[in-house]
Amino acid sequence: MTITHDLIREHRKENGSKIVLLVGDGLGGLPLAPGGKTELETAKTPNLDALTKRATLGLSIPVLPGIAPGSGPGHLGLFGYDPLEYKIGRGVLEALGIDFALGPNDVAIRGNYCTLDAAGNISDRRAGRIASEIGAKLCAKLDQIKIPGVEVFVRPVKEYRLVIVFRGEGLGGNVADTDPQATGVPPLAAEARSDCSKKTAEIANEFLRQAREILKDDAPANFLTLRGIDKLPAIPTFQEVYGLRAGAIAVYPMYRGLARLVSMNVLDAGQTLDDQMTRLKAEWDNFDFFFIHFKYTDSTGEDGNFDAKVKRTEELDSCIPKILELKPEVLIVTGDHSTPAKMKSHSWHPVPTLLAADTCRFDGSTEFGESACLRGGLGQFEAKYLMMLAMAHAGRLDKYGA
Fold first, then answer.
1. Domain range spanning residue 67?
2. Cβ-contact 200, 149 below 8 angstroms
3. Claim to verify: residue 194 and residue 255 sit in the same structural domain
4. What is the pLDDT of residues 344-368, one digit of tens each?
5. What is the 8-class DSSP label of residue 384?
6. Which site from 139, 170, 361, 369 is most exposed, i.e. has the minimal number of CB atoms within 10 Å?
7. Nearest alpha-carbon partner for 139 in 155, 151, 150, 161
């Protein structure tokens, strides 16, 4: 456990206050042209703008300057876990997100259905975002794969995403992804990055060999790539560190998995932001901390759709009054990373962050956007310290030292 966690455990206290962490996935963006506005600055966000008057703004650095994080490290940082210390593969998060019971001999893998052209090159890394029902049928076919000396489990997640689990003795989780993160090139072979993971890489390549034959007539999902190959790590629970009863309200399985990884209570969130707000209100008296996840500011950015990301940002803004009606002592609005539509990918840019509480020093901000956050009172800070700020503003930390 980190020194920071030890410090929090030593000085935390109970006072009945409530903290809400609202995460607009991939919230940060870029202007399409130099000197223009980002997606967040373009969006009409009257509720977030009004909230700045009792808030302090800043920019959070998910991992380190210049490092573009995945969603796993990005969220772990927001939860106060150093993403450089707790390295967790996306496969583990996806498996936990669909309630797959991972054991000590399991290696979990996030799969993406993809489209191969006649030359065997990837033409679409997400197979046209196939419907979940199609993905489930393909998983049923792949679940029949047999490999000597290991059990194979294939389970659907959502749309083009799936989980593969290898169960057996002597498996390591240090295997490179097979997704080249580009189109027009063939998928990569699974390669072990350590001797203890060579067996896993061999199994993964045999799985892919059989999968190619099984899926060859199922275009657009006529193959798959493997990502986030890993084993379940040991990690302290959220309640052990912060003394907070935490409820997670997330729709997508991976983010439910992230919450479950740190032993938050994962609550049924329906399918829409309105559903999430309804569940928040219903559970308000049962938890001290709420993690609310909104996916679509990220997916629209990855699609390179600036206007759609603007609209999704405005949708996120619309839930702010419903949260404020519940009177949380601390409300944080931020993202796990930036996903500029201009780049169609996660980026290294620091993430807009708003922390609202009656104990905030007003920094003069009148709107919530990257430029305002650059001038805000929180400055640029590592995301792993955000939970300490939340605890302090909620009155949940005692004085350090005499």
1. 3-87+235-393
2. no
3. no
4. 999 999 999 999 999 999 999 999 9
5. G
6. 361
7. 155
